[in-house]
């Protein structure tokens, strides 16, 4: 139960990471993040199951496809809405989520799909503990992804420019940073991270255009729990939500497992709106 909770929580954490990256840069909330993860899983399915390439080609191909998709999505659809009330951006991303589900169903069908992975049906034993390799792949993949993102944001000029743009857009612009292009790249990174989450999640839940995107709502609860502006908080919040779900399904009455994430979201908003690692900030308007 502990390993399963951490594995599912890592998926929530990766999706929540996309929420946080976009919010820190643009102060927009992308409620289509879960559906972008679903599209990433279908991209890998097309490369692996339909075109016949191996798993690793499918993984990196899906990341590349979704990164380009995220870049174009921000440049063509989201950028014209910047400056409008936040409610307009929220409604736009919610509408995009419904569109993505409909298009995915029209292209790949509404039946659950799957593809071969090197971890399917395999287990690893650690003394008396037997762990499915799908769960280990999720945990290790999440750790590697976080390491890559940390190095990118702290050791590269582009990563530092992204941090500067998220902290003060006007100052970054005056320093010569192409802020609009940086925002598009942040959306690209967010979509690429969602693709990784979708590929790692696929062996556990199958790829379903009708339900897979709703993981984004639980990931939103994880982002709020960790603190909506905190990148480490997104991962910690995701793992906590995953653990709460697992143990609620075991020790609480039926139905609590599916609703536990939303109950946690409600409690955090009432008791500690800034989340575990977030900080409350005041803005003059």
Report on the architecture of this protein.
This protein is an all-alpha fold and 285 residues long. It is 72% helix and 3% strand. It has 11 helices and 2 strands. The longest helix is centred in the last third of the chain and has 27 residues, at 179-205. The termini are far apart.
What can be said about this structure in brief?
This protein has 285 residues and is mainly alpha-helical. It has helices at residues 2-26, 33-50, 55-78, 86-108, 133-155, 157-167, 169-174, 179-205, 215-226, 231-251, 256-271; strands at 123-126, 129-132. Helices cover 72% and strands 3% of the residues.
Order of helices and strands: HHHHEEHHHHHHH
Largest sheet: 2 strands, antiparallel
Shape: globular
Distance between the termini: 47 Å
Radius of gyration over alpha carbons? 19 Å
- Percentage of β-strand residues: under 5%
The tally of strands reads 2
Order of strands in the sheet with most strands: 1-2
CATH class: Mainly Alpha
Briefly note the structural class of the backbone.
Answer: mainly alpha
Based on the coordinates given, report the CATH architecture. Answer: Orthogonal Bundle
Estimate the mean pLDDT confidence: 88
Question: Could you estimate the helical fraction of the residues in percent?
Answer: over 70%
What is the fold-level CATH name, i.e. the topology?
ABC transporter involved in vitamin B12 uptake, BtuC
């Amino acid at each position: 139960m502990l390993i399963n909770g951490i594995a599912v929580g890592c998926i929530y954490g990766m999706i929540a990471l996309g929420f946080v990256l976009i919010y820190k840069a643009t102060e927009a909330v992308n409620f289509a993040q879960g559906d972008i993860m679903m599209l990433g899983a279908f991209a890998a399915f097309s490369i692996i199951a339909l075109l016949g390439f191996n798993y690793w080609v499918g993984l990196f191909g899906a990341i590349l496809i979704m990164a380009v998709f995220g870049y174009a999505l921000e440049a063509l659809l989201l950028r014209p809405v910047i400056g409008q009330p936040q409610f307009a951006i929220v409604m736009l991303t919610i509408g995009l989520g419904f569109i993505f589900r409909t298009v995915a169903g029209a292209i790949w069908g509404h039946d659950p799909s799957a593809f071969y992975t090197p971890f399917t049906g395999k287990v690893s034993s650690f003394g008396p503990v037997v762990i499915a390799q799908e769960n280990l792949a999720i945990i290790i993949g999440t750790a590697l992804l976080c390491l890559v993102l940390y190095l990118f944001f702290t050791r590269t000029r582009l990563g530092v420019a992204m941090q500067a743009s998220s902290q003060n857009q006007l100052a970054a612009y005056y320093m010569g940073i192409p802020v609009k292009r940086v925002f598009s790249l942040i959306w690209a990174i967010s979509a690429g991270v969602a693709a990784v989450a979708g590929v790692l999640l696929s062996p556990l839940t199958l790829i379903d255009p009708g339900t897979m995107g709703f993981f984004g709502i639980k990931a939103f609860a994880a982002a709020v729990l960790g603190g909506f502006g905190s990148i480490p908080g997104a991962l910690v919040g995701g793992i906590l939500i995953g653990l709460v779900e697992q143990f609620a399904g075991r020790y609480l009455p039926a139905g609590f497992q599916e609703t536990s994430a939303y109950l946690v979201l409600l409690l955090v908003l009432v008791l500690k709106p800034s989340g575990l690692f977030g900080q409350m900030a005041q803005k003059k308007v």
